[in-house]
Design brief:
- With 194 residues, this protein is mainly alpha-helical.
- The protein has one domain.
- It contains 9 helices and 2 strands, in the order ααααααββααα.
- It has a two-stranded antiparallel sheet with strand order 1-2.
- Strand 1 and strand 2 form a beta hairpin.
- The longest helix is centred in the last third of the chain and has 27 residues.
């Protein structure tokens, strides 16, 4: 009989990632929970100086590992060298942060009353998907909804990119160029030089 590795609670974080995507499909306001996926890794790396979140707790990486590894949806090919390079990872981080800043500007414009709420999720920063069914409340100020649509767009886009690279290459290929992983790595390097 094979010895199986003992499962821990954090081995099931993929359920959180999958739940997040599904909940945002039915109610866009759940997108706000995605902020935890932004702040927890950054705080962890700033406080502990390591990438424990990425290596152990990241539900998205686990989801890709499960789909690509356990369910065999990955070709299991090596990721190209250019995708591992610093210029690509840092370039993608800058691009990602630019798109994030644009999302914040759109939220600010709605907050300031200069622009109306767009009930759409933008996939791959280009394709607008009508998502009006997922916004059920009109009692909140419109900027709350605008942020949720924008943030869910970022999370859905990064999931799609990760899914594509999971299929083409190894299951957790997204982790190689993930903007959060790049940021936590930079924080860990800075902390090591303190």
């Amino acid at each position: 009989m094979k010895n199986r590795k003992k499962k821990h609670w954090y081995d099931y974080m993929w359920i959180v990632s999958l739940s997040y995507l599904l909940l945002g499909f039915f109610n866009i306001l759940f997108a706000w929970l995605g902020l935890l996926c932004f702040f927890i890794p950054l705080i962890n790396s700033a406080v502990k100086g390591n990438k424990a979140y990425c290596n152990r707790y990241c539900g998205r990486g686990q989801l890709f590992g499960l789909l690509g590894g356990t369910f065999g949806l990955s070709r299991r090919k090596d990721i190209p060298g250019w995708m591992k390079s610093k210029w690509f990872r840092y370039g993608f981080l800058i691009f990602f942060l630019t798109m994030f800043a644009q999302m914040l500007v759109n939220t600010w414009l709605v907050f300031a009353g200069a622009e109306s709420l767009r009930e759409a999720v933008t996939l791959l920063w280009t394709f607008k998907l009508p998502w009006h069914w997922a916004y059920h409340t009109r009692t909140l100020t419109p900027w709350v909804g605008q942020f949720a649509f924008g943030f869910y767009s970022v999370m859905l886009t990064s999931t799609v990119l990760g899914f594509v690279t999971m299929i083409l290459y190894r299951p957790r290929s997204w982790c190689v160029y993930c903007p959060m992983g790049t940021m936590t790595q930079l924080i860990c390097k800075a902390k090591a030089h303190e």
